[in-house]
Amino acid sequence: MFYFLRFLLSFSASVSRWLVGQLPRLRMQCFQGILGGFLLVFAVAIGNAQEFTPEHEVVQDMVKRGVKYLVATTNSHSELGQSYRMLVAYTILKATEDHDHPMVKKEIQNAIRFANDARNGAAKVTKLHEGNYDASVVTMFLAAHDPVAHRKSLEDLRDFLVARQHDDGAFNYPTENKSLEGDTSQSQYVALALWSLKQVDIKIEPIVFEKLTKWFIKAQGNTGGWIYHFPDPNSTPTYSMLAAGLSGTLASADAIGLLRGPGAALAQSVDEDDDVPKAFRRIAIEKKVNSRNEAQISVPRSSIERTVRGAELWISKNAFSRNDIPWYYYCLYGRERYESFLELFRGTREKSPAWYNTLVRSLRASQDESGGWGINKDRPDPIGEGYTATSFAILFLLRNTQKSIGDLKIADSVGGSGLSGLNVADVAFVDGKVVDKSQVTSIEDAMKLLESEQENSPQDQLLADRMKLDADPVKRKEQLYRFARLLRSPDTRARRIAAKLLGRGDDLDFVPDLIFALSEGEKDGQVLRLAENSLRILSRQLTTYILPREGIVTAADRVKAERYWQSWFLSIRPDYVFIE
After folding, report:
1. At 172, is the secondary structure helix, strand, or coil?
2. In which band, very low, low, confident or very high, does the pLDDT at 110 lie, cut at 50, 70 and 90?
3. Which helix (H) or strand (E) segment is 230 a member of?
4. How far apart are CA 526 and CA 519, in angstroms?
5. How far, in Å, are 463, 489, 558 from residue 483 at the CA level?
6. Inter-helix orientation angle 184-199/239-255, to 10°
7. What percent of the chain is modeled with pLDDT above 70?
8. Per-domain residue ranges of the chain
9. Does residue 475 have a pLDDT over 70?
10. Mapping DSSP to helix (H, G, I), strand (E, B) and coil, where does residue 229 land?
11. Could you tell me which of 415, 471, 461 has the C-alpha nearest to residue 440?
């Protein structure tokens, strides 16, 4: 990349010097046209060479403009259906993380009412033609907003959806032709909704996911694709249904531990379920439910592997072409979903994959002046005046599914000689031996790393994620005490790891230590934010942020956070005395 850009700059300078020399024989208009055309080509080349991520300023600007369009458009269309309004509000919540956004607050009340109607068996919900879609989007919205506060509503939605599952595992419209077993699109939305509930520790019987996984596998065609309604001999597979079918398969399989957890057998993935408090498990595999071994899971992992291979074969023969996909934006977000689940399936991910870069550039070119997609000269959205297309586009740009899945090992192509392709910054000496920091899970080895090194590296920031606290309560307590002492270490790296790990111990005795960490001044605020994150986990207040989410943390911010968390702790342990 560097050499390519340097060549372009050198070439542009040479062309400019030549043109200046030819000015006497050229009209100024001609010169401006040639130079302008060259600069345009140069700008396009630079744009195509960029590597995008959801945090890239270009992507962030696209998202902000899209949100602005959604707010303006939705406010002018009060007749929008339930699932459309919820989709827009869910997108705004994910894009802004603003729980107090007017549109989010308004639709949260509507979502709660929908859940109440579902619980009470109200006809306006139970007989709703698109009830599965509506309930699924409402579920994902409430789970993303506040899974603790909305737990009763989420349980009601779970019961509503599970009750609508067919005996063969699929979901369909209530008035659909009974000869058709299931609707691939609806089934994948319900799979995503139930998967979201598992993440926030809402109990769902494994048989629900097992039946759903089996149905997706059965519905996959011989060519590796899926059709809209199964079985239907007159239908042909489409990219939209491939995205739905593959996403639904992998989401359901993950919920029963076949991607990460029991039966996954992914040596390169990081399984931290044993250490994360139940209320904060991103991939919640409840031990009491899923303590079974792989032999007890009625869907073998080999079936998922065959399904993935078949889907990849279909993808290799069917290009993801904008012009050939009628439901393009629906499919676009489906693409992000299945790509994210495939990352989980393989246990690794790229920071800026080629498919994401290509589609970001496409979305950048097709975004309307108003900020929306799927309107005016752009391919119109078949199911709305741009708000659905724009919502799907924004969720794609955010890599929403990837963020919901959580952290995986990032693929790194930089090698160190003699170290099997490891980045030399990510190895260290422990007891005189060269070790890969990404494999360090022992508390003792991690302590030795902290004591022996002075330099930070990317892997140091992940040590806390990989450490496994002892299962023995006495030994575990001692380990937590050691990390609590590290909160007073002069080493910033050690304090960061301690602040992050103490939240995973699920032990309220260490709340005062974390509150102490809030009182410490620090330039970048990372220790403070990690300490508050641990307090959020221990208190089960997952959406409470007292410190600013980004930027500088001021002394006033620290005092405010310290007082808030002290007040909460005293509400559960009123006899505790904080020493100023």
Report:
1. coil
2. very high
3. strand 229-230
4. 13
5. 13, 10, 21
6. 30
7. 69
8. 2-49, 469-572
9. yes
10. strand
11. 461
| Tokens encoding 159 | 């019961």
42 pLDDT above the threshold of 80: no
Taking the C-alpha atoms of residue 202 and residue 191, their distance in angstroms, rounded to an integer, is: 14
What is the rounded CA–CA span in Å between residue 516 and residue 557? 14
Q: Work out the average pLDDT over 387-404.
A: 93
Q: How confident is the model at residue 255 (pLDDT cuts 50, 70, 90)?
A: very high
Q: Using N-to-C axis directions, what is the helix angle for 102-120 and 151-163, rounded to 10°?
A: 50
Give how far Cα 47 sits from Cα of 52, 358, 378, 398, 457, Å.
10, 11, 21, 19, 30
Measured CA angle at 36 (ends 32, 37), to 5 deg: 120
Alpha carbon 298 to its chain centroid, in Å, reads 28
User: For residue 110, what are the contacts with CB-CB under 8 A and spacing of at least 6?
Assistant: 82, 85, 86
CA-based nearest residue to 522, from 497, 490, 567 = 490
Q: How far apart are CA 517 and CA 511, in angstroms?
A: 10
pTM, rounded to two decimals: 0.62
Q: Using only the alpha carbons of the chain, give its radius of gyration.
A: 26
* DSSP 8-state secondary structure symbol assigned to residue 1: -
Phi, psi of 145 (to 5 degrees): -75, -55
Continuous segment of H or E residues that includes residue 433:
strand 433-436
| Residue 508 CB neighbour total at 10 angstroms | 12
pLDDT at 458 over 90: no
With 0-12 CB in 10 A as exposed, 13-18 as middle and 19+ as buried, what is 526? Answer: middle
Strand partners, 436: 427
